[in-house]
Amino acid sequence: MHSMLKASIAALATTAVLAGGAPAEGHGEKLSGDLKIFLDTSNPAPRATMEDMIARFSEMHPDLTIETTVIDREAYKTQIRNFLTANSPDVATWYAANRMTPYVSAGLFEDVSDLWMEEDIATNLASTKGAMTIDGKQWGVPYTYYQWGIYYREDIFNELGLEEPTTWEQEKANCQVILDSGRKCYTIGSKFLWTAGGWFDYLNMRTNGFDFHMELARGEVPWTDDRVRATFANWRELIDMGAFIDNHQSYSWQEALPFMVRGEATAYLMGNFSVAQFREAGLTDDQLDFYQFPAITEGLELAENAPTDTFHIPANATNKDNARAFLRFVVSADNQTLINNGENLGQLPVNASSSVDDDEFLNQGFEMLSSNSPGGVAQFFDRDFPAEMAAEAMQGLQEFMVFPDNLDDILNRLESVRQRVY
Predict the structure, then answer these.
(1) Are strands 303-305 and 265-271 parallel, antiparallel or unpaired?
(2) d(Cα 52, Cα 9) in Å, to the nearest integer?
(3) Does pTM surpass 0.70?
(4) How far apart are CA 311 and CA 138, in angstroms?
(5) Any idea which of 8-17, 235-244, 274-283, 340-349 has the lowest mean pLDDT?
(6) CATH classification code of 148-305+380-421
(7) How many degrees, rounded to 5, is the angle at CA 106 between CA 104 and CA 107?
(8) For the chain, domain boundaries
(9) Beta 184-186 vs 288-291: how paired, if at all?
């Protein structure tokens, strides 16, 4: 889908500016020429947020012609290498950390370290710099991130006399009470695999720590290592209890939501983007709450998944000065406050000078990520592991959840993939 955004859309842009969306950065610099933007934000809410943001940038620069192309997220993943190589846009969305690596290594992303040397960005985006850095250089800017954790039915916990667990033993004890009440502990839809990846991320980081998890992601540890087996042993404790809903491999993550909404399961390990879905399904904030995935190995610092979405300038872009101006606008404090508020992305701003929207779950996520994740911040399984390894591994993770006795075969297969990929 293509759309041309010019100054004629002033009504939308002016409304947003009056609402407080005008950025501090970029005023006084009038751009002209063209700017071609590719987006993977095809779902309605993020698409509207991005198009509104682009409209406000266009209003600031009436002599600039902006062409926006929105591509379905799954299709985008298969098309990105092609369009970065030929007929490249000036700006493209993507993901942080290891997901950048193939395009950095292939010379398809522009080095934007110069932007990160500018005082506003260097100061206000310092916490996300590591996720944008490869070989000591920065290859894009973040525009949003969000916490993962365990969303649960607070009203059912209250009914059963349960408290939020902080240890693995407490987690399992709660689960047994829930099972005894005739409910499942966790809903999950593993049809598209990545949700199983989220469970492995947390179990591995809690069993072995963030550094070990990233060593595994970089291919430095065999999948047959005893420490990896320990992670699966902890996972199997829940599987053998019957903690997860039946036939989860048949459901997408959205199709698994009703189990929790109906009270047939009490919790969901998921990203904060799920909150809007829970609310739309009828759960109130009095029924829904959130807690940090509990500790497993005593003494390990807690690490979290906080996937970070990003903008990049392709190396083959035609209008790189305009693209840099747009990236400055994207990360500006006012824009970050606006696009991440509860009426838009409903996520966390990357700019430290931005305001976090007054939302229970955003505030909990901000507190957790800023104050209680000293172990580190991972991006998510299929972002931290190379694409081929991630695809094969997530298939194995789903298989393990259904057929845990297949673990030896699964680990041997994944070890063969590791030796081929790295």
Answers:
(1) unpaired
(2) 10
(3) yes
(4) 12
(5) 8-17
(6) 3.40.190.10
(7) 65
(8) 2-146+306-354, 148-305+380-421
(9) unpaired
